[in-house]
Specification:
Helix content is 52%, strand content 12%. By secondary structure, it is of the alpha+beta class. β6 and β7 form a beta hairpin.
Length: 514
């Protein structure tokens, strides 16, 4: 309905149609509907959504404001060859300052270890092995006499070509077992120590440091190197170095590898190890990427414990703040993820409870409707049964034989004790059935009301079988007489009898059925 002050005639046909659709759905006053449609650019769906869900920020106004905030196009940049070369050199310098990515060494599965050749092949290749040793002996002597010559012929260790290493019959083990063997050999060689050994392979230690945002201190040793013993005894076994590495606040995970082992050799090649003893500090570098693990420091060659600790502590201090921030951000993300998961779980539980309550409510309503239908059906059946019973009584009272005369023969005198303390006497023919006697008792009230003289002849109800809700019994001794049509009163009662009318209850029916 239009209100005073609202002129719909000024609207266009499309606007009037939109107004009609909107008011048909929301039933809102036209004076309030027109401003809402105007704010919704006469879009009926947007207006209906704002009406039911509430008006939030206007997307059209936000889009217009965003367009107004678009910065003007930037002018084309011009540069000469000298500026391009300088910019290129600056990018190259930044690339050089970026730390190297920490290698991810994937160990060979134990089930893929190359088996040793069979005995037959070993016998066949024995002559070739002897010939190789005979020919290689002069070369070894020459290399021993001139040890500086192989350095000029050796390939660059920074290349991708893997070098061969002679393990001197060292048994290949899994990365975890190899790490434990290195720890055991270190303790046998340099004595018991308190170094925080990782006890696992390099790949496992790297994954742990990446997951926990810790530092991974990689130490590569070669027992054949002259400075290895001094480095292990004077630097790694130093108390200050031990204290710094074992400090839980520094969050350092130590992994020591022997280059005679396969995994440690691969790690030395990937880390470009060209001098022993070798130490690399690996940690998360957020400036590279959100998941990057990079080598932030390399300590190579012999040095005293103070210098080693000072360099290690300097790099550690520089990277600790970044790691703390990354660890805090990761913890915040995990907490937010857990909170979101708990909220989703609580929402699912609440939704399940709501669904269960709705289901119980529907079941209760359906049960009530079913009970109501059963009650009405039961009432209708009871009413129909009462109508059929009454119709049967009216019909049956007309079929009862009249009482014989006093002087008639073959007459049975019966005294009936009615339920309401009424005692009646009546004569019946001896050949009348017991059902006739029951029908008389059933229709006795109609006899008293004069039902026998009814002018309209009642009809027997169809699809109805009458059942008597009482029984006739005699006392001393107690005998129950059934309403049998084939048995006469004379056969059951005799010349006379005193019968009691007993009402049949549901409990009596259950006892009789049992």
């Amino acid at each position: 309905m239009a209100t005073p002050g609202t002129d719909i005639s000024q609207l266009s046909e499309a606007q009037q149609s939109a107004l009609q659709q909107y008011t048909a759905v929301t039933d809102q006053n036209i004076a309030e509907a027109i401003p809402l449609l105007q704010r919704s650019q006469w879009n009926v769906e947007i207006a209906i959504t704002k009406f039911f869900d509430g008006e939030g920020p206007d997307p059209v106004a936000e889009a217009i404001a965003a367009q107004s905030r678009i910065p003007p196009p930037r002018a084309a940049r011009t540069e000469n060859l000298q500026q391009s070369l300088l910019r290129g050199s600056g990018n190259a310098l930044r690339e050089e300052l970026r730390p190297d990515a920490a290698p991810r060494i994937v160990p060979q599965p134990e089930n893929q270890v190359i088996p040793r050749p069979s005995l037959l092949l070993a016998i066949l290749f024995t002559p070739f092995q002897l010939l190789y040793k005979v020919l290689a002996l002069p070369l070894r002597i020459f290399a021993y006499l001139f040890p500086f010559l192989p350095n000029f012929l050796r390939r660059n260790t920074a290349s991708r070509t893997l070098r061969r290493v002679d393990t001197n019959g060292r048994r290949p083990l899994s990365p975890a077992d190899a790490a434990q063997r290195v720890q055991r050999e270190f303790a046998e060689e340099y004595g018991e120590n308190e170094l925080p050994w990782a006890g696992s392979g390099y790949a496992t230690s790297l994954d742990f440091a990446k997951r926990e945002y810790n530092f991974l201190l990689v130490v590569l040793i070669s027992p054949e190197h002259d400075d290895t013993s001094t480095f292990c005894r004077d630097v790694l076994m130093n108390s200050e170095v031990n204290t710094f590495i074992r400090d839980p606040q520094n969050r350092i995970r130590l992994w020591i590898g022997d280059v005679r082992d396969a995994e440690a050799y691969q790690v030395s090649t990937a880390l470009k190890c060209n001098k022993f003893p070798f130490t690399a500090l690996i940690c998360h570098t957020p400036e590279v990427s959100s998941t990057a693990m990079s080598v932030v420091a390399r300590l190579t060659g012999p040095m005293d414990s103070n210098t080693y600790l000072a360099k290690l502590r300097t790099i550690h201090t520089q990277r600790t703040e970044q790691l703390d921030q990354a660890r805090s951000a990761h913890a915040f993300q995990n907490a937010e993820r857990n909170l979101r998961r708990e909220q989703d779980s609580a929402y699912e539980r609440s939704l399940a409870q709501d669904r269960e309550r709705a289901r119980l409510r529907r079941e209760a309503e359906e049960a009530e409707r079913q009970a109501e239908r059963e009650r009405k059906e039961k009432e209708m059946n009871a009413q129909k049964l009462a109508e059929n019973r009454e119709a049967w009584r009216k019909w049956r009272v007309t079929m009862i034989s009249p009482e014989p005369a006093i002087d008639a023969k073959d007459v049975v005198r019966i005294a009936l004790k009615m339920p309401h303390a009424a005692r009646i006497m009546r004569r019946f023919k001896a050949d009348d059935s017991m059902e006739e006697l029951y029908a008389f008792v059933e229709c006795y009230e109609l006899f008293e009301d004069g039902g026998e003289s009814s002018e309209k002849m009642p009809q027997q109800p169809t699809d109805y079988k009458h059942e008597f809700n009482f029984r006739l019994v005699s006392t001393l001794p107690r005998v129950v007489y059934e309403p049998d049509k084939d048995t006469t009163i004379g056969q059951k009662v005799g010349r006379s009898g005193n019968l009691i009318v007993e009402s049949i209850t549901e409990e009596d029916d259950e006892e009789s059925e049992e």
